[in-house]
Design brief:
This protein has 527 residues and is α/β, with parallel strands linked by helices. Among the domains are: 59 residues, no CATH class; 56 residues; 88 residues, Arc Repressor Mutant, subunit A (Orthogonal Bundle), CATH 1.10.10. Helix content is 50%, strand content 10%. The strands form four sheets. A five-stranded parallel beta sheet has the order 3-2-1-9-10. The mean pLDDT is 93.
Length: 527
């Protein structure tokens, strides 16, 4: 462990770079609270989504890296802003008319449209907890409503009242003229309607810990800022939370850069240093547009998990968080195969390589063994030519290729076979376009079929790949990739595909010969 810690202190893997910033933060003294606090935030106005997963997964990676290079204990809080007022009715819930009646109430007071929990906030919080628990994340859940109403934020709220003018000096220059005229960091929770009110603060009494505001009906009301009688506006609220809890690290998306800037200034104005922060790039859909919950574009959490195991998504999230990435269905096969490549590489790597390997940051030091003896991309091609409707069809080929494999001994391969059939039928099959070979390609395919007819060697992927290469060279394909492109387009109905020798070994020599014969007879292109 000592050697690993020393190596981690110079590792260029981004979680260690982030962790070393935290180590530097506590170079003079450990935190007074006795632990380093990591935080992720969640707005329960909607269901947990892929961005929620990414933020918790990436924060956990930094936390794990920090724990390797420091002995200071850590905690991770997943904070739900369930005291925020409901501003609009989501489009993906039942009983929308009922929800419309509850506009402006705190999410923890909005009736649950699904009828399963005491409030819409509670419903989404339960979904969030189940969501995070299903991935095995270690975290402590925190509810904004509970923290406000129980008094856990009281000292921080009184401090914000005391530093009101400094908070306003920070916020007002960032607002438009109309907004500046009515802005206040304090949002009263009306004792009449329960609504979270966007109204100006008319008077402040620091000694009493109260503010005065005007109700929509014109009545002036004095309320304490403590005990859940007010909710703080978003940017000051973030800062107040950092101050109250002593948050040391939080990451957020590029769209919140200004929020981080202002919240950091406010946190310092309240009297504590702002946390270390990381700004990550946002995901784009297949058209290069930013993924949006309201638009519903891109790829959802549930959709990824329909076609691949969660570890592949964690692998995808690990990659270059400061670089914008396209998040769509066609990135899944590559992520699955690269994840398993890294698993296979891990045991033979030295300490420096292991700490740079994404699987270390997904699993920690307890990295599992990959049992994927057939790549996911190959399973997709097998599903294609076999017309597979279930994983059992694929296992008929897998057992011949890898006799030692079975669903019991290779559960990740068995799961991948099921995922591959789903992915093939949903995405590959509708897009398949076969073509007829030209004269040179036809001659080469006839040659390959003849060589396979004479093949008396084992089902060895490398030996078969060499034979396929030899055919391409013998028929003058230059570059050779044109030969393989022809194989994919004529035999598989796709523009790219697997190492063809491995495909023959998996699918079978006789079966590949029959596939070639069908293509030459025009049966595939007609279909």
């Amino acid at each position: 462990m000592t050697d690993l810690r020393e190596t981690a202190m110079t590792s260029k893997a981004w979680p260690f770079e982030e962790a070393r910033r935290l180590v530097k933060r506590f170079a003079k003294a450990p935190p007074e609270k006795g632990h380093v606090l990591f935080e992720t935030g969640y707005g329960p106005s909607g269901l947990p989504h892929i961005g929620t997963f990414g933020e918790v997964a990436r924060t956990t990676m930094v936390r794990r890296a920090f724990e390797l290079i420091s002995d200071i204990p850590t905690k991770l809080i997943c904070f739900s802003d369930d005291m925020d007022g409901l501003r609009k009715v989501p489009g993906n819930v039942p009983n929308r008319d009922q929800m419309a009646e509850d506009l402006h109430l705190p999410l923890s007071k909005v009736r649950d449209p699904f009828g399963t929990h005491e409030s819409f906030g509670a419903h989404n919080n339960a979904r969030l907890n189940a969501f995070l628990d299903s991935f095995g994340f270690e975290y402590e859940f925190a509810s904004s409503t509970e923290y406000y109403t129980s008094g856990r934020f009281d000292d921080a709220l009184l401090r914000m009242l005391e530093r009101y003018d400094k908070v306003m000096e920070i916020m007002l220059p960032t607002l438009g003229e109309e907004r500046r005229a009515t802005y206040s960091p304090f949002l009263p929770v009306s004792p009449k309607t329960g609504h979270v009110l966007q109204v100006p603060t008319l008077e402040r009494n620091v000694a009493k810990g109260t503010i005065v505001y005007e109700e929509p009906d014109g009545e002036r009301v004095e309320i304490p800022v403590t005990g859940g009688h007010v909710k703080i506006q978003w940017k000051p609220d973030w800062a107040m939370r950092w101050y109250a809890l002593g948050v040391d690290y939080e990451m957020s998306g590029k769209d919140l850069i200004d929020s981080v800037t202002q919240a950091s200034k406010i946190c310092r104005a309240l009297g504590r240093p702002a946390p270390e922060t990381l700004t990550y790039e946002l995901f784009n859909d297949e058209h290069g547009q930013k993924i949006s919950k309201s638009k519903g574009n891109g790829l959802s959490m549930e959709e990824w998990l329909r076609y691949a195991a969660p570890e592949s998504l964690q692998y995808f999230m690990y990659q270059k968080p400061k670089t914008a990435k396209r998040l769509y269905f066609d990135v899944i096969p590559k992520a699955v195969d690269e994840y398993h490549q890294q698993l296979r590489a891990y045991p033979d790597q030295d300490a420096s390589q292991k700490l740079a390997n994404p699987v270390f940051h997904i699993h920690g030091a307890d990295v599992p063994e990959s049992r994927m003896v057939v790549p996911f991309a190959m399973l997709l091609n097998l599903a294609s030519v076999a017309g597979a409707e279930d994983a059992q069809t694929l296992w008929g080929f897998i057992r011949r290729y890898a006799p030692e494999a079975s669903p019991d001994t290779h559960p990740d391969l068995d799961a991948a076979a099921t995922f591959a059939v789903r992915y093939y039928n949903d995405f590959v099959k509708p897009e398949k376009v076969y073509r007829m070979p030209d004269d040179r390609e036809r001659a080469a395919l006839e040659d390959l079929e003849a060589r396979l007819a004479a093949w008396d060697g084992p089902l060895d992927a490398e030996a078969l790949q060499s034979e396929v290469f030899a055919v391409g060279k013998a028929h003058g394909f230059e570059p050779l990739r044109d030969w393989f492109k022809a194989l994919y387009e004529v035999l598989l109905g796709a523009s790219q595909g697997p190492r063809f020798g491995g495909f023959i070994a998996l699918y079978g020599v006789d079966e590949t010969r029959a596939l070639i014969s069908s293509a030459l007879a025009g049966q595939l292109a007609q279909g």
